[in-house]
Amino acid sequence: MGYDSACTLHFDGRSTRGTAVLEHKELIFRGPFRLAIPLKEITIACADGGSLDVNFGGRRARFDLGPSAAKWAERISNPPSRLDKLGVKPAMLVLAVSVVDPAFLAELAQRGARVIRRPSKDRADLVFFGAERREALDRMASLSRSIKPNGALWVIRPKGRQTVTEADVMLAGRQAGLVDVKVVSFSDSHTAEKFVIPRVKRPNS
Fold this sequence. Notes:
Layout: E1 4-11, E2 14-22, E3 26-30, E4 34-38, E5 42-48, E6 51-56, E7 59-64, H1 69-77, H2 82-86, E8 93-97, H3 102-111, E9 114-116, E10 124-130, H4 140-144, E11 147-158, H5 166-175, E12 179-185, E13 190-196
Parallel strand pairs: 8-9, 8-10, 10-11
Antiparallel strand pairs: 1-2, 1-7, 2-3, 3-4, 5-6, 6-7, 11-13, 12-13
């Protein structure tokens, strides 16, 4: 997601060069020692010039990041929602196939998306396809015909299970004539992988 940077960390009286990475749930420093700060434990994140100051668990760490410090502070203080990461906007037509997460379906409705549960004559802006087993991936080709030329197909699969792996999804996407462009954490148990129609295959491209 673009949140990794060489930096100097000031922590516990030490100043050390290394790399900072802002992940979905942690702010991580890798160098001569490793520091992992759960985002839920950060009480303050603010930018001071080119430095990111974070308070967590009664402790303080300062990351000299340069011009990106303010962007990191904003990301930590106001993290994007699940729908933000998935690109869902109000009034979008969303096709949800084999998606069994009721909280997610409720979020879609609250966002103002128009949710349908089976393909229709109108192409969708986004398709969310739940695949619990690799055999289900055979449907990707037909579902790809349900998205607008500039739309996207998200495959939602279980994390860390061999019933359907990342390699399985990537292969099925290629066979469906799609390209993978993004991966996000959908939930504690599932990952979402985004596929789009290649630009050269879109009308008027």
